[in-house]
Amino acid sequence: MKTRGRTEKSTASGAPGTGRTNHSHPAPLAPSHLPPLEIYDTTLRDGAQAEDVSFSVDDKVRVAQKLDELGVQYIEGGWPGANPKDIEFFRIIKTIPFKHATVVAFGSTRKASNPVQKDPNIRALLAAETGTITLFGKSWNLHVTEALGITPHKNLEIIGDSIAYLLGKGRRVFYDAEHFFDGYKADPDYALETIRRAVEAGAERVVLCDTNGGTMPWEIRDICAAVKRECSVPLGIHAHNDTEMAVANSLVAIETGIIQVQGTINGIGERCGNANLCSIVPNLELKMRRPLLGDRRLARLREVSNFVAEIANLMPNKHQPYVGDAAFAHKGGVHIHAVQKNPATYEHIIPERVGNRQRMLVSDYTGRSGLLGKVETYGIKLSKDSPKLQEVLAKLKELENQGYQFEGAEGSFELLLRKAVGRHKPSFQLLGFRVIVEKRRADEAPISEATVMVKVGEAVEHTAAVGAGPVNALDHALRKALEKFYPQLTEVKLLDYKVRVLAASQGTAAKVRVLLESGDHKEIWGTVGVSENIMEASWQALADSIEYKLLPRAH
Question: 0.70 exceeded by the pTM?
Fold first, then answer.
């Protein structure tokens, strides 16, 4: 739960078990005659092409697992012919079991100069060993003649034999008709002919791509309806957001009978981004009554949105519909008064259905109910009128005003609560630390060494360690000092380390927020630190990580 320096109220909204009974929205009937829809996520490929986004192999694996838990049907893992990172991802991912999702490899049709069986891209797709492959080809004659420099007939040939060859190797093939809508507007007969050739060759799905993101919803509706009349296999939609129409275009396409919707979590992607699945999915599920995830998994949507933002090292968009912090936040007095009587007055859905919550940005009192529920999840019993509850609220406001953020730092948040109510005894006391970074030669990597002095009970431990960097050295020194007292710390692994500048206008004097993710064989937890000094912020997060591990657990 976040307060961001102001008071929040978290209440139930009429979802099962929430206790809210006064949130009534008329619900359209579910269309029983329509075919089931498919979610095709391309966060790991198209989303990774966004400016400022770079996923490691481990990042990609973790995001894929989170998408599988959400219930996504298809996860586009990357382009195995494009870079070593994607090759490694496909090697690892085939060893990991998935409950819901099929991992898909993405790549292009063969080059015109290569026989299909010798084309490096086609070979790389087969080497990825996915059962399903998405192949893209050109539908716009402008791209055929100018980008590829081949004849329209040759383009049809490479579409057909590329798909047929992969099919002959036992793969399912989805065909992405790149630039389809621009191609159709320029020459509808040729654009449709490229699709016919793909279907004849054995493509199971044909995905209509608004690659430049410049098509309007009414154009999407007319063109999709025309293609559906001509195409004998199920269709998909892949929209980009260059005109802020990607979500609308995707929904309109589905209205015409398209069954597969492609997009990314939070809409990340090249240029202005891709169609945002965090808006598309709840719109389909809650507004158009098209079953996709079901209530239980839909309620994890905000969690997945924040997880991907954190992994991508992006600041979550608080104003994002459905999943953003501000999506169900109320500040104006008239709004708050009405919502307290009936949430439907200013909330178009029950926030908990997508894993969000109602927030009141006014008095301290209005935040107590929400915080009380959070406290109880940690087994701490307080009354709504408890002075301790007010102390916690005040502390949260103070910390988040300083730049702390607890959305991805549940470990630090639990420690904060336990300290506030007197339920936490520190496992160690810092007496001091020192970190030295030395670069001896221009062509050699710097050397990092950390010294830590801590007190455990009456014992004082003074140790030093080296590391790959200053934070790594500090982590090693702290573990070295404490493991003799707490052997269970050998189980802890530092899984992720992220730094975010909080006020870029202050340059190198700006505060930074350090977010750590740690884990053992049982769980993963996040901790946070904030300071103008990156080492101090790192120390706060490291110390919290250790303290969280050492908390007494009933299990």
Answer: no
